[in-house]
Design goal:
Elements lengths: L2 E4 L5 H12 L3 E6 L2 H10 L5 E5 L5 H14 L2 E6 L17 H29 L2 E5 L12 H20 L4 E6 L6 H6 L15 H10 L4 E4 H9 L1
Parallel strand pairs: 1-2, 1-4, 2-3, 4-5, 5-6, 6-7
Helix pairs in contact: 3-4, 4-5, 7-8
């Protein structure tokens, strides 16, 4: 049985991906900071195919526990670094960005994915596995007010392609899922109606295509992968 580690999976894209993978017969090890929403998410997934480990991805002890739980399910073939921190809401300009908040954004969006990847590199090499780092269009577009989150995702993109160059035998992707109707997206646009954004499930076929077809490692937009799935 293939095993995926998916961070930030109590809701949004992480949970949608966990649902899709378990329907395909995978097992998943999922985490989130808030324990009760994570337990509720795990209850939606098939018994015996899920391990839910509440905790903060910036905590080394939590990361170790998450990896151990995944290995207990079987060989780890996918790491999806999905957990993200937006920063303050509303988002401040860089000139006004609190240093402690900026450090937190980088700790969650950059340092934690690197540390978790380091823990499972051997597992992925043994299984010929896949690494997916969830990115954003803010990594490449200079949106005012997005300096913290956007620059952190840009750093994650660069880390992704360097890891890919160092491990050409693996499939390594930075995936921009596009706008989604999620709690974090609402925080990015406080007071605005985001009901026109698609549900996270709409981006999952892009992840499935990456897993099924294993295109060359690199940065991909979900919107460019999904039409090929539909056709």
């Amino acid at each position: 049985m293939n095993v995926a580690i998916i961070t930030g999976a109590s809701q949004g894209l992480g949970l949608a991906t966990a649902r899709a993978l378990t329907r395909r017969g995978w097992a998943v090890a999922i985490d989130a900071r808030r324990e009760e929403p994570l337990r509720q998410a795990a209850a939606e997934l098939p018994s015996g195919q899920v391990a839910a480990v509440p905790g903060d991805v910036t905590d080394p002890g939590h990361r170790a526990a998450l990896v151990a739980a995944a290995r207990a399910l079987g060989p780890v073939t996918l790491l999806m670094n999905n957990a993200s921190a937006l920063g303050p809401s509303p988002q401040p300009a860089l000139a006004d960005y609190p240093a402690a908040e900026l450090a937190r954004v980088y700790a969650v969006n950059v340092l934690a994915p690197v540390a978790l990847t380091q823990l499972v590199t051997g597992d992925l090499l043994a299984t010929g596995g896949t690494l997916i780092n969830v990115s954003s269009d803010a990594a490449v577009e200079p949106y005012p007010g997005w300096g913290g989150y956007g620059s952190a995702k840009a750093a994650l993109d660069q880390i992704t392609v360097i890891f890919a160059a160092e491990h050409p035998e693996l499939a390594v992707y930075a995936l921009d899922p596009g706008d989604m109707r999620t709690e974090m997206h609402q925080l990015a646009f406080p007071g605005e109606d985001i009901s026109d954004r698609p549900e996270p499930d709409a981006s999952v076929p892009a992840i499935e295509r990456l897993l099924d077809e294993r295109p060359p490692s690199g940065r991909y937009r979900a919107s460019r992968l999904i039409p090929a799935v539909a056709s």
